[in-house]
Design a protein that fits this description.
hydrolase, 10 strands, 9 helices, single chain, Rossmann fold
């Protein structure tokens, strides 16, 4: 099985050489995940990786999903094709693809992580209303604007795809900034009656307690984090400003395998809104 850690979006977690952890505390969090679920994490991480290949964001309908660097073999093995896409839309250069996966009978919506101006989204951390998700919800302005820049296009693509593939389920994925767009997309679509399963990788905090509780209550959320990756601690000073993570977190707490594979025993399920365990563990030590 292609390893979670060997593909670019999770390889990014390994590249922060200045970050190390000591004695990561996993006491009280003993639930592990199944091999089948880890395989799903692998597959959707590859879809999230595939959107970093510009061809998947710019090719016409029917083009096979492909990655010239060999970073999405499992996605390629499903014979997935482009249904529609969008490239560098709006100030934050939002980019994504809606793919058709005939092997698993799924529509897969994948958002790209930050490139260019997208890196600024985390610093625009003023709360704004996101009543399209829930009436009491507030979202980070930069992250939410990067989603609303493409919302109408995404909703139209999904509606068209569901007309052609009415028996296909919908999965949404993304890494980093793409993870924030993915969570907003899933939350709004569910609010409007469209079922969606969400897989995010290195997801920053995106909103307040009301938002986190609402998204958690929707279910079908898989927020995957890796050891002491800094992205889930974004935006800067987020916890002071009132930013809160949704639950649960699937924390890859160990990456000691020489081939960078991840097995079920190296993932812990962390429950609780804005838990201080997992990737936000309080005894993480940063060293140069």
């Amino acid at each position: 099985m292609q390893s979670l850690a060997s593909i670019p979006i999770l390889t990014l977690f390994f590249l922060f050489g200045t970050l190390r952890s000591e004695q990561l505390n996993v006491a009280g969090h003993t639930e592990t995940v199944s091999t089948a679920l880890v395989a799903e994490f692998d597959l959707f991480s590859q879809y999230a990786s595939a959107i970093y290949c510009d061809n998947n964001a710019q090719s016409p309908k029917g083009t096979p999903i492909s990655c010239s660097k060999g970073t999405c073999p499992q996605a390629e093995d499903t014979n997935a094709t482009v249904f529609g896409n969008f490239f560098n839309i709006g100030y934050f250069e939002s980019t994504g693809v809606l793919a058709i996966d005939p092997l698993n009978h799924r529509l897969v919506l994948a958002f790209r992580g930050a490139e260019g101006n997208g890196a600024e989204a985390a610093s625009l951390n003023k709360f704004i209303s996101c009543a399209a998700i829930c009436s009491e919800c507030h979202c980070g302005s930069g992250f939410y604007d990067s989603w609303t820049d493409v919302r109408d296009q995404v909703v139209a693509l999904i509606a068209a795809a569901q007309q052609e593939y009415p028996d296909y389920s919908l999965a949404i994925t993304g890494h980093s900034l793409g993870a924030t767009q993915a969570i907003f997309a899933a939350a709004e679509l569910r609010t409007n009656g469209t079922a969606a399963t969400l897989f995010t990788y290195g997801q920053p905090r995106v909103g307040d307690t009301a938002l986190a509780e609402y998204i958690t209550s929707q279910g079908e959320n898989y927020r995957i984090t890796h050891t002491v990756d800094p992205a889930p601690r974004l935006p800067p000073n987020g916890s002071i400003l009132g930013y809160v993570h949704n639950s649960p977190e699937y924390w890859i707490f160990e990456d000691t395998n020489t081939n960078h594979t991840v097995n079920p025993g190296q993932i812990k399920v962390i429950y609780g809104i804005n838990s201080t365990a997992g990737s936000s563990v309080s005894n993480t030590i940063f060293r140069s």
